[in-house]
């Protein structure tokens, strides 16, 4: 016979808590921007020749600044993709986002070694890592600012 009694508080306490169900749309909304940005970086890295400026100094600053900005944005998007309910905590979310960005930067430079007219550079990976860390610092500052602006919820 099936037990049709109402669950007691003891039954509820013994049952493990259920994680909120995430919709496919919600998961895609978080992950897709980072994936699209990574694809854009890959496509740009596959170009044999990038347009340049006449001044070699301005050209160098523009190209290295582009590296910095690309990975700034990638780290922010990865941080968003990992979501606020990251299982290992908020600090680990930053570390994982930065690690993925730097790993992607290293593999991107490796990919450039196969593109005619392009050469891999350790300096570019360091610039990319710096852009990623600054992007994540900005994420943390934005979070602190958002929390500080919330009204005090004490009774």
- Total beta strands: 0
Number of helices: 5
Report the end-to-end length measured between terminal Cα atoms: 49 Å
Mean pLDDT: 84
Order of helices and strands: HHHHH
Overall description:
This protein has 155 residues and is mainly α. It has one domain (32-45, 54-149). Helix content is 68%, strand content 0%. It is built from five helices and no strands.
Short description:
The chain has helices at 9-14, 24-45, 56-82, 90-112, 122-149. The chain has 155 residues and is an all-alpha fold.
Give descriptors for this structure.
155 residues; mainly alpha; 68% helix
Question: How is this fold's topology laid out?
Answer:
Layout: H1 9-14, H2 24-45, H3 56-82, H4 90-112, H5 122-149
């Amino acid at each position: 016979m099936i037990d049709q009694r109402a669950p007691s508080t003891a039954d509820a306490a013994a049952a493990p808590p259920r994680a909120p169900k995430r919709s496919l749309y919600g998961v895609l909304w978080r992950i897709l921007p980072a994936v699209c940005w990574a694809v854009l970086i890959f496509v740009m890295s596959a170009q044999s020749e990038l347009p340049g400026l006449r001044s070699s100094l301005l050209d160098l600053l523009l190209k290295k600044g582009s590296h910095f900005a690309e990975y700034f944005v990638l780290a922010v998007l990865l941080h968003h993709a990992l979501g606020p309910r990251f299982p290992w905590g908020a600090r680990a979310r930053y570390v994982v986002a930065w690690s993925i960005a730097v790993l992607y930067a290293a593999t991107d430079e490796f990919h450039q070694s196969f593109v005619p007219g392009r050469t891999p550079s350790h300096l570019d990976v360091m610039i990319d890592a710096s852009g990623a860390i600054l992007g994540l610092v900005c994420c943390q500052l934005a979070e602190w600012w958002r929390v500080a602006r919330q009204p005090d919820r004490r009774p």
